[in-house]
């Protein structure tokens, strides 16, 4: 793979991935829906709204022209999970026929309860080359060239290896796997569980309680992934445990920060602060799938109840602490 890269979405993560792809030696088209915003970004060479102080790499061209996407052999879809279907439907005719589509959003589609790879194949067809990028990565770190390692998953192991090699750069390392379901479950599930970690922090329940919650939440994630055929080694890697540890431990994480505000008494609307916390959208879908699979996920259920307004933080904490004692493997 020696051609260009197209990045769909000019937010913090899209800009960061564009910088990483450019640092790997690729010409990059950074596509934004708004032509005026694209022109301003192309002229200023800085995404002042999402990544102030970070210069856009010289190999990046910001554009709103969908025609510029046709020459890319790798397309990074960096749009929120709940808008992926609509954006793919709009832009798919502009993609090259041989382009690999890399899904960079972490979530489950509301309404259909579909994983992102299923959404992509619904739109693009079963023959599409679809991959998933997931792992512990803050946009600001990646954009600034700080060392970061993530997972690139594709059902075709050779495609996964080629994409990982094509997108890896001096400080952005991609490890590859053919376990797509495991990688995307790790990415989607940890957002919900990070909200729970934030609630514990915001409530002032202590670091011991937060460590215990993260461990039990990870056990839930493992059970859930296993029920869909996800492999344990994938969940123990970057796209599972690695991503959960990062997202559940820092206020840089929108999901953790959202939960922290809930723990301090904010309503879900107040806690969002006008920023997307993908876990808030994913919680109900995650629980619906867990029920369908017969998987117990009490921590994730607690988050879903709080986010939907069905239960208070106090009631949920009391219910979790009153659960019957079990063996740790259960």
Give a brief outline of the structure:
The protein is an alpha/beta fold and 330 residues long. The protein is built from 15 helices and 10 strands.
Explain what this protein looks like in three dimensions.
This protein has helices spanning 12-23, 35-44, 84-91, 116-124, 139-143, 157-167, 180-203, 207-227, 232-235, 238-247, 254-263, 268-272, 278-293, 298-308, 313-321, and strands at residues 4-8, 28-31, 60-63, 72-77, 100-103, 108-109, 114-115, 129-134, 148-154, 172-177. By secondary structure, the protein is an alpha/beta fold. It is built from 15 helices and ten strands. The longest helix is centred in the middle third of the chain and has 24 residues, at 180-203.
The top-level CATH class of the largest domain is Alpha Beta
In the CATH hierarchy, what is the architecture of the largest domain at level 2?
A: 3-Layer(aba) Sandwich
Trace the largest sheet across and list its strands. Answer: 3-2-1-4-5-8-9-10
How many distinct domains? Answer: 2
- Spell the H/E element sequence: EHEHEEHEEEHEHEHEHHHHHHHHH
Share of β-strand residues: 5-15%
Largest sheet: 8 strands, mixed
Number of E strands: 10
- Number of helices in the DSSP assignment: 15
Shape: globular
- Return the CATH topology of the largest domain: Rossmann fold
Share of helix, binned:
40-55%
Question: What is the C-alpha radius of gyration, as a whole number of Å?
Answer: 19 Å
Distance between the termini: 45 Å
Q: Structural class of the helix and strand makeup?
A: alpha/beta
Looking at how many chains there are and whether they match, the oligomeric state comes to: single chain
On the 0 to 100 scale, the average pLDDT is 95
Low-confidence stretches: none
The CATH homologous superfamily of the largest domain: NAD(P)-binding Rossmann-like Domain
């Amino acid at each position: 793979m020696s051609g260009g890269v197209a990045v769909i979405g000019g937010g913090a993560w899209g800009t960061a991935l564009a910088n990483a792809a450019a640092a790997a030696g690729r010409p990059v088209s950074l596509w934004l829906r708004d032509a005026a915003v694209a022109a301003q970004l192309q002229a200023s060479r800085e995404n002042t709204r999402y990544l102030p102080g970070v210069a856009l790499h010289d190999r990046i061209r910001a554009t709103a022209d969908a025609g510029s996407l046709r020459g890319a052999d790798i397309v990074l879809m960096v749009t929120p999970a709940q808008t992926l279907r609509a954006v793919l439907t709009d832009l798919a005719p502009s993609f090259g026929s041989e382009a690999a589509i890399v899904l960079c959003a972490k979530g489950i589609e509301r309404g259909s309860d579909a994983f992102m790879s299923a959404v992509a194949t619904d739109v693009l067809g079963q023959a599409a080359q679809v991959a998933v990028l997931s792992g512990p990565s803050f946009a600001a770190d990646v954009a600034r060239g700080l060392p970061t390692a993530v997972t690139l998953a594709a059902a075709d192991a050779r495609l996964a290896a080629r994409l990982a090699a094509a997108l890896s750069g001096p400080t952005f390392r991609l490890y590859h796997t053919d376990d797509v379901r495991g990688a995307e479950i790790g990415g989607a599930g940890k957002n919900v569980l990070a909200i729970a970690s934030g609630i514990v922090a915001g409530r002032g329940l202590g670091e011991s309680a937060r460590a215990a919650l993260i461990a039990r939440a990870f056990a839930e994630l493992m059970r859930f992934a296993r029920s869909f055929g996800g492999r344990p080694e994938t969940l123990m890697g970057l796209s599972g445990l690695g991503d959960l540890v990062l997202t559940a431990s820092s206020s840089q994480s929108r999901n953790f920060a959202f939960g922290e505000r809930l723990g301090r008494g904010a309503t879900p609307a107040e806690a969002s602060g006008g920023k997307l916390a993908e876990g808030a959208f994913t919680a109900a879908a995650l629980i619906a799938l867990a029920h369908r699979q017969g998987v117990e996920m009490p921590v994730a259920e607690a988050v879903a109840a709080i986010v939907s307004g069905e239960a208070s933080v106090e009631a949920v904490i009391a219910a979790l602490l009153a659960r019957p004692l079990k063996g740790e493997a259960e």
